[in-house]
Each structure stands twice: as C-alpha cells, then as structure tokens.
Here is the input.
Amino acid sequence: MDQETMIALGKSGAYCAIALSAVGSSIGTGIAGTSALGAWKKCYVYGRPPPFQLAVFTSAPMSQTIYGMILMTLIVNKIQDGAAAYWPVFLAIGIAGGIAMGTSAWFQGVAGAGACDSFAETNKGFTNNLMILGIVETVALFAMVFGIVLLNSIKT
Here is the structure.
C-alpha cells in the first residue's frame, strides 16, 4: 500500500474519534436539553424559579467531544511522526474509541435528563445527580486513556 493511502486511512481513524464522540455528545445534550426545557416549563407554570443547574446536567455530554479531539490529535501526531504504517491501529482506535465515547455521552444525556427532572421537582440532590453523570463519564475517560496507552506503545 502506498504512503498516501496509509496516511489517509490513519487520518480517517483520527477523524472518526472526534466525529463519533461528537455524535454522542449531540444526542446526549439533545436528550438532556429536552428534559431541561420541560422541567423549566413546569417551574414557570407553577410559579417556581427555574433552576440554572439544569444547564450543567445538559452540558455534561459535551466533554466527550473534547476527549475525541484529544485522541484525534494524538493519532495525527503519530502519523506525522512517521507511523503511517500503523493505520489499522489508528483506524481501530478512532472508530472503537469514538463509539465508546459517543455512547457514554449519549447515556450521560439520558442520566442528565433524569437529573433535570429530579432536581427541578425537588431542588435537592444536585451533587448526587452530578455524581451519576461523573460515573457515566468515566467510561469515556477509560476509552480515551486506554487509546492513549495503545498509541504510546507505538514506537516511531
């Protein structure tokens, strides 16, 4: 296989890392955001002050896109350092890591929707709700860190 094709395939994996994680972030923030909007509406209807903290629950899934960007950057750096021959590893890390981070973001949004509903109803449990979102986030962190470990094992 020629060098340009290996570089292109490796960079495709790099882009998959951010694209797939961003898809999950979009889905997650959309789900949590929809719940926040409904919860705020209930607050307005019942004359209660709308809690700003719902924006925190809604925005939580966006961090996975940052993790995807980190993996993308590290993959591109490896390719620029002359490791294009490892393109199958880069493609696998990008796709598998992106899916893992994106799925984490998706389900963090589902948990965030529950957190929005709970907090808006009771105005209690902010820290507990945030802990659950952090637990779901940990899956994305694991995927990113293990991808970095694998990337660091490639010697150029």
Summary: Residues 3-152 form a domain with the Four Helix Bundle (Hemerythrin (Met), subunit A) fold (CATH 1.20.120.610). The CA atoms of residues 98 and 148 lie 13 Å apart.
